[in-house]
Amino acid sequence: MKPRFIKLHVKTKEKLIQLERKAAADGANRVSVRIRAVLLNNDEKTSGEISSMLYTSRSRVSEWLKTYEESGVQGLMEGQRSGRPSKLTEIQKILLCDILDSGPIAYGLISGIWTAKIISKIIGDEFNIGYHPGHVWKLMHDFGFSVQSPKRLLAKADAEKRQLWINKTYPQLKKKAKREQTRIIYEDEASFRQDSTLHRTWSRKGCQPLVPVTGQRKSVKVFGCVDIISAKFIYNMDEVFNVPSYLNFLEYAATEMFHKNKRVFYIQDNASYHKNDEIWKWFKENRKWIEVFNLPPYCPELNAAEPLWKYTRKEGTHNKCFENEEQIHTTLHTIFDKVQKNPNEITGYLRPFL
Q1: What kind and span of H or E run contains 234?
Q2: What pLDDT was estimated at residue 84?
Q3: Higher pLDDT, 302 or 11
Q4: Quick check: 217 and 324 in contact, CB under 8 A?
Q5: Could you tell me if 347 and 339 are in contact, meaning their C-beta atoms sit under 8 angstroms apart?
Q6: Structure confidence by residue, pLDDT tens digits, 94-119
Q7: Which of 88, 227, 307, 353 is placed for a possible disulfide with 92 were both Cys, Cβ 3.0 to 4.6 Å?
Q8: How far apart are CA 241 and CA 244, in angstroms?
Q9: Cα–Cα distance, 175 to 348 (Å, whole number)
Q10: pLDDT reported for residue 82
Q11: E strand or H helix at 220, and its extent?
């Protein structure tokens, strides 16, 4: 009889690999072995071959594979036996979830990571109930928890000011702009270094991509601003970010981006030189046609120009070695010219700000 193999989507396979590693690290060895069996079957290993590799019976491997096909990864977790009563009461479950939501640091742990072993110990300490780390996995899934990569949040960000901008200031600004037919323009700066950023890419198994480096750390500074409606984008390169270079960019923007017979709402971040007296003197002199708004401190995700730098790195600077600054300039000009000629390239990045 021809053997059947489970075909996993690339993202599903990556998720299972991460879960298998996490289960092994947490001491949930039975869960780890079951997931490994599914991964091996995806690599076209038969039940017999898998049983030899994992030192278990062929029938057990077949059972795991069938369970995965019927119930997914949830079926591989501990505690799948039907009718097994929960050891935690409903009140204890709520209390445990509150502890987990507060985070390991708030609970008083040194580590910032919840592991099955740690959660198992907390259940024992708090409720005097014993849970095997493997069964904690099933418990976490039942509670609606999953293993996730954290997202960085700038520690100095003011949560209150951020929410005020999101819930009140910016919505009102958009309504006013629509009512008065005023354009909204975002400004931002970015540095592109000679030793460029690395990014994940496809490569043959066992052949890790290598990106040559020169050891030089020179960079090119870029000022840029974008109209969120038309996606018109302008930029200016300089050697430093300071008051004179920013004034130079504003003068350039006044001729290339702004129309002095039409008002604009100009949004910038809180860089120190943005708040300089000379800069605000320039804004005051041009207040008839430009109204300035500062974003909440340390909130780059609220700046519509910020995603354009990610686009630039993706399109031309990731995984690339620049021998000199001239090469960086050439690459950046190529990408920016492409954006200027084809604004549709960046409209998707601006949609969340409309």
Answers
A1: strand 233-238
A2: 45
A3: 302
A4: no
A5: no
A6: 888 888 888 888 787 877 888 888 88
A7: 88
A8: 8
A9: 21
A10: 41
A11: strand 219-227
Dihedral sign, Cα of residue 343, residue 220, residue 248, residue 243: positive
What is residue 197's DSSP assignment?
Answer: P
What's the CATH code, domain 159-198+211-353?
3.30.420.10
How many whole angstroms separate alpha carbon 162 and alpha carbon 57?
57
Closest CA to 137 of 67, 11, 34: 34
DSSP 8-state symbol, 321: B
Residue with tokens 């899934």, as numbered in its chain: 141
Domain boundaries, the chain: 10-76, 90-142, 159-198+211-353
The span from the CA of 238 to the CA of 224, in Å, is 11
Q: Which residues, in sequence order, are CB contacts of 130 under 8 Å at separation 6+?
A: 87, 123, 124
Is the whole model's pTM more than 0.70, yes or no? no
What torsion, rounded to 10 degrees, do the Cα atoms 238, 239, 245, 249 define?
10
Tell me the C-alpha to C-alpha distance, in Å, between residue 167 and each of 174, 253, 352. Answer: 12, 29, 14
> Which pLDDT does position 97 carry in this prediction?
87
Nearest CA to 227 out of 165, 308, 335, 282 is that of 308
Number of Cβ within a 10 Å radius of residue 295: 22
Nearest 5°: the CA angle 85, 89, 92 is 135
Residue pointed to by tokens 């075909």 = 7
3-state secondary structure of 315: helix
Give the DSSP H/E element, type plus range, for residue 251. Answer: helix 243-256
Question: Phi/psi of residue 74, each to 5°?
Answer: -55, -35
Q: Please give the Cα distance from 60 to 72 (Å, whole number).
A: 16
pLDDT digits (tens, 9 = 90+) for 314-329: 888 888 888 888 989 9
